[in-house]
Amino acid sequence: MASSTSRCDVATSPKSASTQELERKRARDRKSQKAMRERTKRSLTHLSQQVAQLTEALAGQNREKNELYNRFLAVSEENDHLRIQKAALQLRLLENGKALKTCSSSSMTLPPYESIPLNISPTCLSDQILQTFVESRWEAHTMQTASHIPSYPEKPDLTALFDSRPNRVVDETSSIVGDIVKSYTEIDTLPKKIGVHFIMYNLMKWQVLRTKSAFEAVPEWLRPEPIQLQQRHAAWIDRVPWPRLRIYLIEHGDIKFDEFAAAYSSSFNIEWPYDPDLVIITVTKDTENIIINPIYEEHITKLSNWTVEGVFRAKFPAMAAIVDSYRNTTTDKIVTENIRDPDPLPRYAI
After folding, report:
1. How many domains does the chain have?
2. Does residue 82 fall inside a structural domain?
């Protein structure tokens, strides 16, 4: 019986060994397959990351390409605009050259309302703003290069002097002039602010439109003198009310804007012996606008009501004497019987 069992063990031993070897082989295969799957997974993850990075890089290049293309379009448009300006400038220089050759001024070859002052490049910030505005709007008005030609109301809208909101509804010319007037804190009374705004608005409007009606809206004493049409000078001089004082400033080119404005802004005055609030009225049509009182408008168109005092007289006595020469010996009477108190000024949000 014992010998029979031994023979059985001997007979099954090779099979057991083979089975164990097979199990070990299968275990190795499973381990290898697992390792291969992990390597494949890592490779796929790495490739996915590379694809994402390349996609992002490509998108960035496309964005940069689009930005460059948009800049190219903007530069091309600006280049076209500059070519138009260059052509207009060349035409203007050609006309000036012809005028010099024939020893005749532009006022002799053009109607007065088309003869604008001959200015040099801007010498101060206000000149930079106003000269750029006039040149661009004149070009748009004459060549129709703008998609929207702004309107130029007959009377300036004074709302910009009181409303600082960026979305205010005010015509462009009134708005720009209003912002400039507000920037001079020395112009500290309502009559002075309204007076300066009125003459600046009408002067700019005429220089843009260059029509007879716009020219006639400019006070006679503010219209250019012959020397302003013949000799180059700073644009700020054209806004000085007194004609002989403008001539003096052009002939004395050593007087600079900063020196003049520092004394003038705080020293000029408009004589108005009535309630300052009466210089404006509020009108309501489609929108609420603030305009100059017609009686005050008539008042400031009389140059005798403009004067200088204080610092300006001490610093520039010769120019103060020129201003005094425009004073009337008799005081102009102002009809006030029809003056109505205007509506209270609205409390605009700032």
Report:
1. 1
2. no
- The boundaries of the domain holding residue 200 are 105-324
Rounded Cα distance between 342 and 279, Å, is 9
- Give Cβ neighbours of residue 200 (< 8 Å, ≥ 6 apart): 130, 177, 180, 181, 239
In contact, 125 and 64? CB cutoff 8 Å: no
Q: How many CA atoms lie within 13 A of 175 on its CB side?
A: 14
Query: Does residue 171 carry a pLDDT above 90?
Result: no
308: Cβ contacts below 8 Å, ≥ 6 apart: 264, 267, 268, 269, 319, 320, 323
Supply the pTM of this predicted model.
0.62
Report CA 281 to chain centroid distance, whole Å.
28
Structure-block tokens of residue 211: 């029509």
**Identity of the amino acid at 46:** H
Q: Are 227 and 200 in contact (CB under 8 A)?
A: no
- The residue to which tokens 């843009």 are assigned: 208
Tens digits of per-residue pLDDT, 137-162? 887 776 665 444 556 778 888 887 88
- The answer to the question of residue 26 being in a domain is no
In the chain, the amino acid numbered 209 is L
Tokens of 40: 């494949």
Write down the residue that tokens 């112009």 correspond to: 187
Say which amino acid occupies 266. Answer: S
